[in-house]
Specification:
Immunoglobulin-like; five-stranded antiparallel beta sheet; 2 helices; mainly beta; elongated
């Protein structure tokens, strides 16, 4: 018995947690301390906080991956959820390991805006677009994250004559079209942007860099 108990303990998944970007909500975990064997399978369940019964996630029942997409199951973004995972190997099942409570609206990370750069003689015009959620309107188009939060954009410029590390904040606000003026022709400028959620005092990662010579 103690041998199978040891195996049960050693295959139990570790660090079960939700990761979320723009409401794409994924439960992830690490293999147990025994490490990964070829026959280790994982089983995922989820529930809303306060509910008694756990639901099986059919697509993540007996899988070998270390993550499970629960975006559709956690689509009520104000509700708190739990996920849990158990492992099976050599005919032995581990106990369940439970995630922390997860509320998508409070915890999702917001992605950076997409940036389109139009250059003029002495200015750059930027067109920014908010990241999109996985949820769709009736027309089929993705609902932007601005539907769920008041978002601001932060725009940074790097003048490549100067030190690479010095990026200057040149704009913060909600406008989607921004003009940066009084720039020098012949100089290379790089632009990157972040999304900022004032209510949660949370910034996205930087967008990729867009470099241009006027």
């Amino acid at each position: 018995v103690s041998e199978s108990q040891d195996l049960q303990e050693s295959i139990k998944p570790r660090q079960v947690e939700f990761r979320s970007l723009n409401f794409h909500n994924t439960l992830s975990w690490l293999p147990g301390r025994a490490g990964e064997t070829r026959d280790t399978l994982y089983f995922v369940q989820y529930k809303v906080y306060g509910q008694r019964t756990w639901q099986n996630k059919e697509d993540c029942w007996g899988i070998q991956k270390h993550f499970c997409d629960l975006t559709n199951e956690t689509s009520n973004i104000q509700e708190p959820y739990y996920g849990r995972v158990k492992a099976a190997s050599a005919g032995v099942h581990s106990d369940w390991n439970l995630s922390c409570r997860f509320t998508p609206w409070q915890e999702t990370m917001i992605g950076p805006p997409s940036v389109n750069v139009v250059r003029r003689k002495k200015s750059i015009i930027l067109k920014l677009q908010a990241p999109r959620s996985p949820y769709k309107r009736k027309t089929g188009s993705s609902i932007p994250m601005t539907n769920y939060y008041d978002l601001l954009y932060q725009v940074f410029i790097i003048n490549n004559l100067l030190d690479e590390k010095h990026s200057t904040l040149v704009y913060e606000g909600a406008d989607k079209v921004i003009t940066i003026e009084d720039l020098r022709p012949g100089v290379s400028y790089c632009i990157r942007a972040k999304t900022y959620v004032p209510l949660l005092s949370r910034s996205s990662a930087y967008s990729r860099r867009h470099c241009t010579v006027l």
